[in-house]
Amino acid sequence: MLLTEDRFSQVVRSARDNMRTALDLIAIHAEKPVRGRQPRASLNPFTVVASVGSWERFIADLISAAKEDDWHGPGAHKAANGSHWPGLIDRRLTDAGVVREALTPRWEVKFPANAWVGVRPRGWKTVLRGSPDEDREELLDYIAETRRARNGAAHYALMQNAWDSAHEADQDGWYPWQSDADAPTLQAGYVRGATAVLLQLIDCTAATVARDHDWDPDLSRLPDDWFEAEAKADRFAGVRFWGGAELHRTAP
Fold it and tell me: Alpha carbon 90 to chain centroid distance?
């Protein structure tokens, strides 16, 4: 196992920079409230691509940093065939020596269980290590759903293609492409909820990896400001990323 504290720190710094891009897009979207047809709705698909991509790249970088002698740093290695999704991540990370035991039972994440209203995710539910299995399964299903949203956003020739695919694939009566905008688009409230979940996954996973290797987890966390109900730092001061909700942070 080749993962060192220095390599790990590089991976987390890269993930932080990548996730900041998604937050930049949300901050631009939030600059001025409007109703009806919204040019800013065009930002939503790219925000999902940025947030899911940040998570995918984070896991790919962790695996490559743990397995490759000739490691060229974050972002230089191909993503590992879906290793970042719940069905594969436990086996891939334990096999690579990134974590000592299964990761998904140790995730602690607050997620919007009841969709959204406008730009606000709603029905937040916090899954902790001791939470019931059905709550954790609901979280894992939500995470898996972001894959469909990202694919629809990344691969569409026309947004209508993603809209139609979502109609066909939906099993539960709702889908990320429902929107109160005047044109088919990823809904802003869904996009913010998905970004919130992926941001927490990066932070929680980084803390867990650090703990498993006896490294200081506080050196590998995302900024506190990103978890607050309203950001205070200069770059995002005043932005309410999560519709006024405060996100969960795993204890060090």
Answer: 17
Core vs surface per residue 6-25: b (16+ CB within 10 A) or e: ebbebbbebbbebbbebbeb
What pLDDT band is residue 60 in, cutting at 50, 70 and 90?
Answer: very high
As a whole number, mean pLDDT of residues 14-35 equals: 86
Cα separation of 38 and 28, whole Å? 13
**Per the confidence metrics, is the pTM higher than 0.85?**
yes
Q: Residue 168 burial by CB count (10 A; 0-12/13-18/19+): exposed, middle or buried? A: exposed
The alpha carbon of 137 is separated from its chain's Cα centroid by a whole number of angstroms, namely 17
CA distance 74 to 58: 8
Please state the rounded mean pLDDT for residues 75-97: 84
Per-residue pLDDT tens digits for 127-153:
999 999 999 999 999 998 888 788 777
Which ranges of 30-158 does DSSP label H, i.e. alpha helix?
43-67, 86-96, 133-155
The answer to whether 169 and 148 have CB atoms below 8 angstroms apart is yes
Instruction: Tell me the three state secondary structure of residue 83.
Output: coil
In whole angstroms, how far apart are CA 35 and each of 38, 69, 119, 220? Answer: 7, 53, 11, 39
Q: Are 62 and 209 in contact (CB under 8 A)?
A: yes
Residue 93 in 3-state DSSP? helix
**Residues ≥6 apart with Cβ < 8 Å to 9:** 219, 220
* Whole-angstrom distance, CA of residue 15 vs CA of residue 55: 7
CA 11 from centre of chain: 16
